[in-house]
Amino acid sequence: MKLVFATHNLNKLKEVQALVPEHINILSLTDIGCDEDIIEDAPTIEGNAIIKAQYVRNHYGYDCFADDTGLEVTALDGAPGVYSARYAGPQRSASDNMDKLLIALAVKQNRTARFKTVIAFAKAEKIETFTGICEGEITKERYGDDGFGYDPIFKPNGYEATFAQMAMALKGKIGHRGRAMEQFLSYLRDE
Description:
dITP diphosphatase activity, seven-stranded mixed beta sheet, 191 residues, alpha/beta
């Protein structure tokens, strides 16, 4: 089986490839020659995932899944949420995003947060969505060198390490993307 994962992000691609069975060949946007910037302008995480999956299906003809992820911080009324990647500006700098978030939480007692991933799967005229959530908290400083995005400041509930301090296999198992992928793979098995 051949599926396109609508991403250019090599870290995301590796994380997803580690979760899927060997008989599923995952192609990236680069692999199919999609160099255009797919505009993600939906007001929700789910909406952005659907936009990407439908775009690839409509323009390239491949069955495609896409994800969108947001970090929702309780003390910030769910922000940065759908704007997580560009929280500190259009440059999409993970370092700038973390700095802005840590400053916004400096005077807050409640540091609870959750990562939410929605995977949209576009096949023929059909769209299915799958949601994975990982509850945790925002640390007061960065810990760890692995991972990407907000991983150095997000500590999942029940663990003393941030995502950036964890092995990819553990993060994949307990994390938001892994949970959404588990639902998606279950759906594929049933199809």
